Amino acid sequence: MYPAVRKLFFTDCRCAGDGSTETYEQLFAKLDTNKDGIVDVSELRAGLAAMGIQTGQGAAQKIISSGDQNKDDGLNFNEFSKYLKDHEKKLLLTFKSLDKNDDGCIDYMEIKQSLADLGMDISQADANKILQSIDMNGTMTVDWNEWREHFLFNPATSLQEIIRYWKHSTVLDIGDSLAIPDEFTEEEKTTGVWWKQLTAGAMAGAVSRTGTAPLDRMKVFLQVHSSKSNKISLVGGFKQMLKEGGAASLWRGNGVNVLKIAPETAIKFMAYEQYKKLLSSEPGKIRTHERFMAGSLAGASAQTAIYPMEVMKTRLTLRKTGQYSGMFDCAKKILKREGVKAFYKGYIPNILGIIPYAGIDLAVYESLKNLWLSKYAKDTANPGVLVLLGCGTISSTCGQLASYPLALIRTRMQAQASVEGSEQMPMGHMIKKILDKEGFFGLYRGILPNFMKVIPAVSISYVVYEYTRSALGIQK
User: Fold this and answer.
1) Is 162 helix (H, G, I), strand (E, B) or coil?
2) Which has the minimum average pLDDT: 227-236, 255-264, 280-289, 342-351?
3) Average pLDDT over residues 94-109
4) Is 3 helix (H, G, I), strand (E, B) or coil?
5) Pairing of strands 142-143, 105-106
6) Mean pLDDT, residues 206-228 taken together
7) What is the pLDDT of residue 164?
């Protein structure tokens, strides 16, 4: 940015202060070249370029879209000044989160530590590159004025977005944060965005599970009832279910499956935050392997808390017409006939299955995404929806292949006592029996409908998630 322009427009500007109005008026007049009282995308783009202000691809359009309250494809002065004031507030939050020692300046060590907190280790040289791109006076530190000037006309506000900007502008191979859905920045926690993200995720999960419920019921049906001597095909299984209970029976067990999303998500989020604090080798800093361990332990904690609902889901999914009148009737009958222990049948294989699934899913997802970024990413560090969906689908499939035998054992143990002629046996005996009678592939009964539901489930989840985020006012 040219020094004269910086002196003219930014020296007296203060975040959300009264003195900023005059400065905004001067800047607005400079950008509004046709003097119609509106700054549109082309004027903003051309004006910023003329002033030597570098912006990312699509930044001008995003600024206009974010500030345009009356939807006339431009910003009047009120919209323009409101956008800048709101943007400065968000930038100040991010600046403070980076300024670890609260001295009003950011140095290369603070940049390095902030990235390390997100599991991204970079060299001192790379941290200096980032610092030099912002440092205007050659002090090798960045104060609030320099930070604001650098990012005022870049729509990036959160640390995650700014990291993507840094990667593009300094060509750093730092990737993105791990694909753990409940990972939130300090800014998101401060502004309350985290609960909106969790709500959007829960809504997406509910719609996705409901949409793929028939395939999920078929998977459970084949896991429990199919064997080498009793081969049930996909079509034959659906015919049996339709004949026994009609079309509505394809959604048996879906109610409790959707109901357990909210408590599981909340417990997992709270547990994850606590495990990160316990496992981090340094206060406020967590490495990749520590994050994975924290995520796995959080998943195990959430599963432990809601596991009785998992057992009920399996029982309700397999129920015959008239067997249970609903979820509470199912719980009451299980408790009366089998006792409290019945609500934790299959718990051990369920917990054991979390580690290989989570580990392989995460490792494959990150490897595929980073491979794509290293080969094809030129103008952005965001792979895009289709690439992420592809990576997620492949990684989920690999994770399922590794953990599916444990999932099958869990389901059969959960179903014990509700299936006529079912023998009560522990995990080890059940695995031995399946291998003896059905061979290795007997541990993969029902995996076809499980694979069939991956792509529609991921697709539905994404669409609903984005619509819910938009409805809750979360900017992309």
Assistant:
1) helix
2) 280-289
3) 83
4) helix
5) antiparallel
6) 89
7) 57
Distance separating alpha carbons of residues 160 and 150, to the nearest angstrom: 16
Dihedral sign of CA atoms 264, 265, 266, 271 in order: positive
Other Cβ atoms less than 10 A from the Cβ of 55: the count is 17
d(CA 306, CA 329) in angstroms, rounded, equals 18
Which whole-number Å values give the CA distances from 419 to 281, 347, 361, in the listed order? Answer: 49, 19, 33
Do the beta carbons of residue 400 and residue 451 sit within 8 Å?
A: yes
Nearest to 218 by CA among 471, 445, 464, 474: 445
How many helices and strands in the chain, by DSSP H and E?
22, 2
Once rounded to an integer, what is the mean pLDDT over residues 388-400?
A: 79
Average pLDDT, whole number, for the chain?
77
In this predicted structure, the answer to whether residue 170 has a pLDDT above a threshold of 50 is: no
**Quick one: average pLDDT of 168-181?**
35
How far apart are alpha carbons 265 and 199 in whole angstroms? 9
- The angle formed by the CA atoms of residues 77, 79 and 82, to the nearest 5 degrees, is 105
Q: Residue 369's pLDDT band (boundaries 50, 70, 90)?
A: confident
Q: What is the DSSP letter of 282?
A: B
- Reading the block at residue 251, the tokens are 């959604």
Q: How far apart are CA 241 and CA 247, in angstroms?
A: 8
Kindly compute the dihedral angle of the four CA atoms of residues 397, 356, 447, 212, in this order, to the nearest 10 degrees. -60
Spatial contact of 262 and 202, defined as CB atoms under 8 Å apart:
yes
Whole-number Å distance between alpha carbons of 232 and 224: 11
Tell me the mean pLDDT in the region 148-152: 77
Residue 84 CA to residue 15 CA, distance in Å, equals: 9
- Listed range (192-201, 324-333, 423-432) with the worst mean pLDDT: 192-201
CA distances from 90 to 17, 86, 191, 381 (A): 14, 7, 9, 22
Cα–Cα distance measured from residue 418 to residue 342, given in angstroms and rounded to the nearest whole number: 11
Do residues 208 and 464 touch, judged by C-beta distance below 8 A?
yes
Q: Which residue has the tokens 């896991």?
A: 223
Q: What token pair was written down for 300?
A: 């195990």
Angle between helices 159-170 and 77-98 (to 10 degrees): 90
Quote the radius of gyration of the chain (alpha carbons, Å). Answer: 27
DSSP labels for 183-241? Answer: ---HHHHHHTHHHHHHHHHHHHHHHHHHHTHHHHHHHHHHHHH--SSS---HHHHHHHH
Task: Please say whether the beta carbons of 164 and 380 come within 8 A.
Answer: yes
Are the beta carbons of 317 and 220 closer than 8 angstroms?
A: yes
Distance CA 169, CA 163 (A): 10
> Residue 162 corresponds to which tokens in the numbers above?
């700014």
Pick the closest to residue 155 from 60, 229, 296 (CA basis): 60
Tokens describing residue 367 = 């490897």
pTM, entire model: 0.60
At position 104, the amino acid (one-letter code) is: G
